[in-house]
Amino acid sequence: MASVGPSAASTQPALPSGPAVFKTIPYAFILPEILCGTWVWILVAATSVSMPLLQGWVMYVSLTSCLISLLLLLSYILGFHRNSENWKVLDSLYHGATAILYMSAAVLQANATINSEHNLNGPLNYQLNSAASFFAFLTTFLYILHAFSIYYQ
To answer: What is the pTM of this model?
Structure first.
């Protein structure tokens, strides 16, 4: 007869701590999310913000997500989770919600890019906006990958 005791609970994978965070999917996505998100707000800040309302939202989403993801990464590295299943739920909800917010920011940034194509400020703003749009969509994709890989883990 098979026992359903503590051995059944040990089949679930443990949450990584320390350097193992960088080697474990989906937690290895956190650092690229931070780096690509940082590029988004640096590139948007380097443009002459022609559409402050649209690009302000992009800056807010990218900067806030970058800071919260950095705190989440530090908490995993330092082992604050203590292998609790609640951290998986928190992580999945955070990355799912952030993916939705980042998708809205990426679409708004793409709109700002289209509007800056024929801007009098020259091609530099268009190129910076194009790069910001690329990194916004890439960051969105990373957040989606992270959220779904936790869900299907």
So the answer is: 0.82
CA distance 72 to 27: 10
pLDDT value at 8 more than 50: no
Q: What share of the chain is helix, strand, coil (3-state, %, to 5)?
A: 75, 0, 25
Angle 150-99-133 (CA atoms, 0-180°, nearest 5)?
A: 135
In whole angstroms, give the CA distance from residue 30 to residue 18.
14
Count Cβ atoms below 10 Å from residue 110 Cβ, excluding itself. 19
Rounded CA-CA distance 135/142 in Å is: 10
**Average pLDDT over every residue of 138-147:** 93
